[in-house]
Design a protein that fits this description.
alpha+beta; Aminopeptidase; Alpha-Beta Plaits; 2 domains; 8-stranded antiparallel sheet
């Protein structure tokens, strides 16, 4: 059989492995953090499952204090590394058509949290690596498959891993899209804080993590629901992309608005429920909180703040990912993806001056951009492996998303999503197409074969 036929033959086992790993809820859980499980029980369970898979296949494995692990396939000096992550973003189960941690195949797609980001692609690359060694038993180089448990919250897992373990010679991470990624924008996380009292807004909560466009936002308002019904109906008529519900008693109303989740690097693909809530509150009970959000923080280009920018890696984007207000303290978390030409300190100072008009302060943390030489062997080989199966698939690209490639040496993000394919990562009803899964696995096999030929 040729490699395409062998990739097809391994799909049933690959799908079963994905189902088993995606059945584990590996969202970060601060309440269960302990020694050797720095990100909680779920992440520890997923790490144990991946390590057990490697041991069952007869390979050497390493557990690096619960932060990350690896599986060594083959013997000799290291050839390449493959990096993927086992943690997943939170879910709002009520918005899923099937339980997010009960993987299910419907109409040729495997649904479940982690199927596309990133357990499914990690396992596809792992199976491709195993296939390589079955077909090349005399190879005297090894492949190290590395998996971390905190990618969605900043990748401290693999930074810790590389403090304890050898650096990569070269490799890829199947945690983005095709064609190969040569550049990733820098990041800037900004937390805006202020103290506000009075008015009809008693509490506000939207979003769960900064790198997801908030799908839901709730507000506790002074007054009975009937007071808001007419204005809310008018607002919803003008904004059909938003859903909402009112409930409450005589003196207090709970208003919940629903938008559309998306990855923070592509905020234009989502509908921000916090932004929608602020727009409505500006009409019915205006105050400094709704004004700050609506007038300064809802445009994903940063234009309201005067920070819009375009660079080699693309345009600046901004996502208002988390909003919390308890009747006194306000906290807003912004996730910005910035071109490498933009200076983070100057950017933060510009935002600081704007939010100060509303009595707010901020703190920030910046992360570097990544730019790889498009003519390097790594990029050229990964591009060639992709084009062998997708000859009309486009050119090497830059993205706003951040991957493990920033934490490793000579590493590029590579797949699994194909051009124009929306697999709902960071959204409800995440899936991976079984056709795309098989095709991606074949691409990974060829990439491994070509990289290991050096």
């Amino acid at each position: 059989m040729n490699y395409r036929q062998e990739v097809e033959a391994l799909q049933p086992q690959l799908i079963e492995d994905i189902k088993a790993l995606c059945a584990i809820n590996s969202v970060y859980d601060a309440n269960t953090v302990a020694e050797n499980r720095p990100f909680g029980k779920g992440c520890r369970k997923a790490l144990d499952a991946m390590l057990a898979l490697g041991r069952a296949d007869g390979f050497v494995t390493h557990d690096v204090d619960g932060y990350a692990g690896d599986i060594e396939i083959g013997d000799g000096e290291e050839g390449i590394c493959i990096l993927g992550h086992l943690d997943v973003v939170p879910v709002q189960a009520e918005n899923w058509q099937s339980p997010p941690f009960v993987p299910e195949i419907r109409e040729g797609k495997l649904y479940g949290r982690g199927t596309s980001d990133d357990k499914g692609p990690l396992l596809a690359a792992y199976h491709a690596a195993k296939l390589f060694y079955r077909k090349h038993p005399d190879c005297r180089k090894k492949i190290r498959v590395i998996f971390g448990c905190n990618e969605e919250r900043g990748s401290s897992c693999v930074r810790y891993y590389f403090e304890k373990m050898p650096a990569c010679r070269m490799g890829f991470t199947p945690d983005a899209e095709f064609p190969v990624i040569y550049g990733e924008k820098g990041t800037c996380s900004i937390v805006v804080r202020g103290n506000y009292r009075g008015g009809k807004l008693l509490a506000l909560h939207g979003g769960t993590v900064a790198n997801v466009v908030p799908q839901q936002c709730s507000a506790e308002l002074l007054g009975e629901p009937a007071e808001y019904e007419e204005s809310l109906n008018k607002f919803l008529t003008a904004h059909p992309e938003i859903r909402a519900e009112l409930k409450g008693q005589q003196t207090h109303t709970c208003l919940v608005m629903y938008g559309q989740a998306a990855h923070a690097s592509t905020p234009h693909l989502g509908v921000n429920a916090v932004a929608a809530m602020a727009a409505y509150l500006e009409k019915v009970c205006p105050g400094p909180i709704s004004a700050l959000i609506h007038r300064k923080l809802t445009d994903y280009t940063g234009a309201q703040l005067g920070i819009q920018a375009e660079g080699q890696l693309g345009a600046l984007t901004m996502n208002l990912g988390i909003a919390k207000y308890d009747g006194c303290k306000l906290e807003l978390t912004l996730d910005l993806r910035i071109p490498h030409e933009v200076e983070a300190d100057a950017l933060a100072e510009a935002v600081r001056m704007q939010v100060a008009e509303y009595g707010a302060v901020l703190e920030y943390q910046a992360g570097r951009a990544l730019i790889l030489d498009r003519e390097s062997k790594l990029i050229q080989v990964l591009d060639a492996a992709y084009r062998e199966i997708e000859p009309e698939g486009g050119e090497p690209q830059a993205i706003g998303g951040g991957t493990y490639a920033k934490a490793a040496t000579n590493c590029a993000a590579f797949g699994p999503a194909f051009p124009e394919e929306d697999t709902h990562i960071h959204d409800s009803n995440e899936y991976i197409s079984l056709t795309s899964l098989e095709k991606a696995t074949a691409i990974y096999y060829r990439a491994i074969e070509m990289l290991m030929a050096d």
